[in-house]
Write a structure and sequence with these properties.
The chain is mostly helical and 334 residues long. The protein has 14 helices and 2 strands; from the N terminus they run H-H-H-H-H-H-E-E-H-H-H-H-H-H-H-H. Helix 3 runs parallel beside helix 5.
Length: 334
């Protein structure tokens, strides 16, 4: 009996669930989610690595497929012949990193693509934004992704880090949280991207640690699950979005791990996979972030996840990316 009691993770069922995802090609849902194919592989692979079942999928097949998603501009699309986007570029780099195949792509081309999406606006106090693609949408997610992706190739110094930090600072609200852009409502997922970006940049001093930690802790509801903002329903994925930010802030103990585990485990499907909440249909997105959330609270048997890069700590350490921890304010260890 562990501190989490009888709340058991259905490891074998989840592995089987992930393995079967690409075998349902006769269904409409499979083709309607074509644009998420790279994301789906990333979510499934993270879950398998944390479950300590990394060989459950064919690595060589995945590597060949992901390489085929890279376009002439250096970015990656969500599927072959799809336009490049930072979201899929990030997932592709993470996938190849986990499979120790990052050297099979041209990092200079990826760097050039990411840098092409950086925009400095002199009318906003020198804030620098990053667009998700050539069509110009920008928010704090892409600011984080740009810094994270370039850190894999050790080229993040080519970004206007100070300008990006000022953009993120501008998205911070009175409650300590962060929105999708300056003036946007605080949201747990955006909080993760902003805190993680500041961690990569070595600028966690920007964060109002106590105020933000309190706001994040308040996301846990009586059922043990968490929501992304006040007055919203609980959702398994926030075990990651909230938990990762608290972990970076060194405040993971501000929530009840036992209650969180109870909620995530209750959202499992008996045939494998985890849903957003009990009774709903399981999917690979919530399976990934539910398991990642359990890893954050040290659920027994799971490999540890890095709260910044959402990959196994062992992979992050192998790549030398764990050094963000050396830049955490010394006072936070107290």
């Amino acid at each position: 009996m562990t501190m989490f009691g009888t709340n058991q993770l259905l490891v074998d069922k989840h592995v089987e669930f992930i393995q079967n995802l690409d075998k349902k090609q006769d269904g409409l849902e499979y083709w309607m989610t074509e644009h998420l194919r790279v994301s789906g592989i990333y979510w499934g692979l993270v879950a398998l690595f944390l479950l300590d079942r990394p060989q459950a999928l064919d690595h060589e097949q995945i590597i060949a497929y992901v390489r085929g998603c890279q376009n002439a501009d250096g970015g990656f699309g969500g599927h072959t012949h799809h336009d490049s986007h930072l979201l899929y570029t990030m997932s592709s780099v993470q996938i190849l990193s986990m499979l120790n195949a990052l050297d099979q792509i041209d990092g200079k081309k990826v760097t050039k693509y990411v840098l092409s999406l950086q925009q400095t606006n002199k009318q906003t106090n020198g804030q620098t934004t990053v667009c998700g693609d050539v069509w110009g949408e920008h928010d704090t997610r892409f600011a984080f992704i740009a810094m994270a992706v370039l850190s894999f190739f050790n080229t993040q110094d080519q970004l206007d880090t100070n300008g990006i930090v000022e953009y993120i600072r501008g998205a911070m609200n009175y409650d300590g949280g962060f929105g999708s852009k300056p003036g946007g409502e605080s949201h747990a997922a955006q909080v993760y991207t902003c805190v993680a970006a500041l961690a990569v940049a070595g600028r966690l001093d920007v964060v109002d640690r106590d105020r933000l930690s309190g706001w994040l802790a308040e996301r846990q509801l009586l059922c043990g699950g968490m929501n992304g903002r006040p007055q919203k329903l609980e959702d398994v994925c926030y075990a990651w979005w909230v938990g990762s930010a608290l972990d970076i802030l060194r405040r993971r103990h501000w929530i009840s791990a036992e209650k969180l585990v109870e909620f995530v485990v209750s959202a499992q499907d008996e045939n494998g996979g985890i849903a957003d909440r009990p009774g709903d249909v399981a999917d690979v997105y919530h399976t990934c972030f539910g398991i990642a959330g359990l890893s954050l609270v040290r659920y027994p048997g799971l490999n540890e996840v890095d709260p910044v890069y959402c990959m196994p700590r062992s992979v992050v350490r192998r790549l030398g990316l764990h050094k963000w921890q050396d830049k955490v304010p010394e006072s936070w260890s107290q």
